Every structure is written in C-alpha cells, then in structure tokens.
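Section 5: illustrative case.
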C-alpha cells in the first residue's frame, strides 16, 4: 500500500499527536519493539465478519477505523502491512434469516457450515456463505478499502490451521479450564472447544468428546445417530467454538492488531488467555463504544433498530459516515438520521481546513485520517449541507435542476457535470429535506420589533450589488440587526430570521444563504413574511 512520505516536522507531530489512530499506531510500535522478530515482520491488521447476514454499518465502521490506524502506522514505520478481512463462513447456520428468499430450502440445511448451505438468492454462488462473502467484498470494494479477503472454510480445509488445531488438542485440558468457568452447569456438561462436522449430515455438532489422542491428532465423539466417530482435528473435519476460534486465528495468523466492540471485551480477554496457552501473543486491541438508536438504546442487528449504510448513503456521501466513525470512537453515540446533516458539514469543514492546517493540527483533522493525508479535490466550494436543506425548503421544489439555478449563482460556472460532488450533496439534501425536514417546518409571523428589522434588512439588500460576497452580506445582516437589537439581543435577531424566513430554530450563516438563494429572492421572502403569508407554501 502506497503512502505519502512524512516531513521531519510531521514525524515529530505524529509522535505527539492526540488523534486516536496515532495513539494506536504508537501502541502497536511498542508491541513490535517487545516482540521477538518484531522489527522485521509484516504487520497484520485484522477485522472479522460473520456472513450469516448482509454487511452492515458495524462492518464499515470496523474496517474504516482499522484502516485509519493502518495509515497512521504506515507514516511512523517502514514495516510492510497487510489487512485481512476474515469471514467466519464455516459457522453453522443457526436460524433462517428474515431478509432472504427460499426460507423453506434454507430450513433444511440448519446446522450446516454456511459454505455448505445452498445459495438462496440465485445459482450464481456455490453456497450461502459464498454469496454473502461476495456481497461483503463488493461492499468493501465500493468504498475503496485496501484489504485481503480470507475465508475460514479455506483456512480450515487447506490445512493452514492444522498446526494451530494440533496445538489446541495438545493443550485441550488447559483451554477447557479457561472456558468452562464462564459457562452454565448444563452447558459445561457437554462443552468442547472442538465442533466436529458430521460426516453423515454435514452439520456442525456441539457434542462432548468421548476420547482424544493428542499424539495421533484425533478425537472421538458420538454422531447424531449415536454412533462413535473418530476423526482428525485437521483438514476441515472440525472447527473451533468461537472464542477458541478467535484465539486460534490470532495464533495461526500472528495477528498484530484487531479492534472490537465494547461488548466483546470479556470474550477478547478469554481469547487472550487461550492464545497465551498456545505460546502465542494476543494482538494490540482497541475497543470501541457501541452505537445507540433514536431512543438511546443499543443498536441490534437482529432488531434492525439502527441505521443502515444504504440509508445513510441515500442522503450523504460515504466520507461523512467515515467522519462519524472517526469522531470519538470510545463514546457512545446515537446513530440515527438526525446526525447526518451535522456529519456532512463537519466533514466539509474538515476537508476545507486540511490544506492550510499546520502539521500538528493536520494530524488532528478527521479529513487527514479519512483521506490518508491527501486533501481531495471534490469539495463543495463552500456550500454546506445545511444551506442546501434550507434552499430546498424556501424554493419549494424537489426538482434538482431548478435548485441548480441557485447553485450557479453561488458557484459560478458549476454544473452537475463538472461539479459531481456538489450535485451528489444537492441530491442528498433534497431527499433528506423531503423525508425528514419538510413536515417539521414551523413558520411564524414576526413581532413589531422584528418587523422593523426585517424592513430595514430588505431595504439594505435592495441597495447591495449582486456581486457582493457572502461575507459582506453577512456584515449587512449583522448591522441591520444592530440597529434594532441591543448587542446582547443579536442572537434573538438571527433566531428570528431562521424562524420567520426558514421555519426552523437553527439555520446557516445568513450571508451565505442570501448569496445562494439570491438577493432579490430573499427580499421577496421578507416581503411575503411581512404581508403575513404562509412561507411553508409555494409563492
């Protein structure tokens, strides 16, 4: 993976940066310094994925955050790096998902490894696991992530896990001793870290072991029909229970870095104990807080109470979602539709500032971590998502082409063809306005004091030149307010502008909005408000 070279000043800044990806990179470097052979190895970053369902927003978050740490590490170390996206596709199908076709067919294959279950979607893929793996890869590829896809089925069946599995067998009693105290009495009675694959039914079996032979590398268990079966633990004949599987993966792959949600901390601690028993070392880890839904409850994939990537992308570009993932990952945050506008504008602001930031400040800028230090050229030319939402509101149209007529005033020469990013923002803002904002608009009439100030503002705007900048217009708005409101009341003036003209308690910088919507159009808007019209309806 290519990366831009750091200047000496940037290197010094990275060593002191408080941005969490650099903090993580420094922890990883310290790990490698302590590790035998750490100075010469390829550094492996890993993320895990359960392919029983479609890729979700947590998958995106984990990969994008891991990528940010990887980028930071690459700026501080010359060691080569790899990122594995590992699919647990040998897990048994525990239940039929709600959002797939051919449920009756899937029900006949419950308990089988996901890669042994037929594809319910089409005949395009050899299995359900393969179909979902393809969706995962397409999902990751759509965001431009650099990664290497890995399949648990491939690792088990190819023999690449054999050494690890034999080590698990050698240390069976020790690993069991780690796991059994965490289980209930009934579960302890039948628990084994090895899950054999039935040669008769093809199902992943959760059965106790009758016998094991570490020297021969075999186990004996009772199949579903009661017959005794002896099988090697190698070659894909068994898989591991997931906490042991996680530890085994760390051991076999020699993983250096993996992050996980706060809810998996106890599991990670158990896996760390197991990998130590095998003679390996657990990776550096970063545990992030979980997202909350609209009501502040933990998002659950099974409940579907969260926000999907597809839903976010209907309204906003992926970079805004990446920014939301980058910001304060150890703080529980709501992940709902109402966070999107702020995330977009925070992203646009960060991108705008990045080229001018001093080295130390640049490394604190979220856009640096989203774009690996490269400031993109596809900025919005000073237009904010909030401005576009208000434009959609006052223009009373869903027609993007009509709104472009206003945009050209603000960004001369811009067209959907030569400014595709701006066009993408506009389309998202129109959709967001129609879906979430329009119904909540509440316009009010101005009081006497506000009327006088609005009349003053309208008179001022009539006199200014059409070419006046947004900054100059903002000054005029401010001065009009000062002539009618005391200094400590100016906040009320701007609040009145938002509530009377835009039907909202908050709004954009009025100078920028007036420039975008047009001087004469805003004057007409003021005149309609002064005449007592309902601005929620088209003129």
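Designed sequence:
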């Amino acid at each position: 993976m290519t990366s831009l070279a750091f200047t000496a000043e940037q290197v010094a800044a990275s060593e002191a940066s408080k941005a969490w990806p650099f903090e993580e990179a420094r922890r990883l470097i310290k790990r490698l310094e302590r590790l035998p052979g750490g100075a010469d190895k390829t550094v492996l970053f890993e993320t895990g994925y359960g392919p029983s369902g479609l890729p979700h927003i947590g998958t995106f978050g984990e990969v994008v955050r891991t990528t940010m740490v990887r980028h930071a590490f690459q700026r501080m170390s010359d060691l080569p790096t790899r990122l594995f996206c590992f699919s647990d596709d040998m897990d048994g199908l525990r239940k039929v998902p709600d959002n797939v076709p051919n449920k009756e067919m899937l029900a006949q294959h419950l308990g089988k490894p996901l890669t042994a279950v037929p594809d319910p979607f089409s005949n395009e893929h050899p299995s359900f696991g393969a179909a979902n793996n393809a969706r995962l890869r397409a999902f990751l590829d759509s965001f431009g992530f650099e990664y290497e896809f890995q399949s648990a089925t491939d690792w088990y069946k190819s023999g690449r896990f054999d050494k690890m599995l034999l080590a698990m067998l050698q240390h069976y009693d020790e690993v069991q001793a780690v796991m059994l105290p965490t289980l209930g009495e009934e579960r302890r009675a039948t628990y084994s870290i090895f899950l054999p694959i039935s040669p008769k039914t093809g199902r992943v079996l959760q059965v106790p072991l009758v016998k094991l032979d570490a020297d021969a590398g075999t186990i004996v268990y009772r199949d579903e029909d009661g017959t005794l079966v002896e099988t090697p633990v190698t070659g894909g004949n068994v898989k591991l229970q997931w906490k042991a599987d996680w530890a085994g993966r760390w051991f076999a792959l020699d993983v250096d870095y993996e992050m996980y949600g706060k809810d998996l901390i106890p599991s990670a601690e158990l896996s760390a104990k197991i990998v130590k028993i095998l003679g390996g070392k657990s990776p550096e880890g970063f545990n992030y807080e979980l997202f909350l839904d609209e009501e502040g409850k933990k998002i659950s994939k099974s409940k579907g109470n969260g926000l999907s990537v597809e839903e976010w992308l209907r309204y906003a570009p992926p970079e805004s979602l990446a920014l939301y993932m980058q910001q304060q990952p150890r703080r529980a945050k709501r992940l709902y539709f109402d966070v999107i506008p702020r995330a977009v504008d925070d992203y646009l602001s960060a991108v705008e500032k990045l080229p001018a930031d001093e080295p130390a400040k640049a490394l604190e800028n979220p856009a640096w971590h989203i774009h690996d230090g490269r400031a993109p050229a596809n900025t919005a030319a000073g237009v904010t998502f909030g401005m576009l939402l208000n434009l959609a509101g006052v223009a009373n149209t869903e027609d993007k082409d009509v709104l472009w007529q206003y945009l050209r005033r603000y960004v001369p020469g811009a067209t959907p063809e030569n400014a595709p990013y701006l066009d993408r923002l506009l389309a998202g803002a129109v959709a967001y306005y129609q879906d979430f904002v329009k119904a909540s608009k509440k316009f009010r009439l101005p009081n006497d004091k506000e009327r006088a100030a609005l009349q003053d503002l309208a008179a001022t705007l009539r006199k200014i030149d059409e070419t006046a900048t947004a900054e100059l217009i903002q000054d005029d708005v401010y001065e009009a307010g000062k002539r009618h409101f005391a200094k400590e009341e100016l906040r009320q003036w701007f609040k009145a502008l938002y509530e009377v003209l835009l039907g909202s308690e908050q709004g954009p910088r009025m100078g920028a909005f007036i420039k975008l919507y047009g001087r004469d159009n805003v004057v007409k808007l003021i005149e309609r408000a002064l005449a007592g019209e309902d601005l929620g309806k088209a003129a």
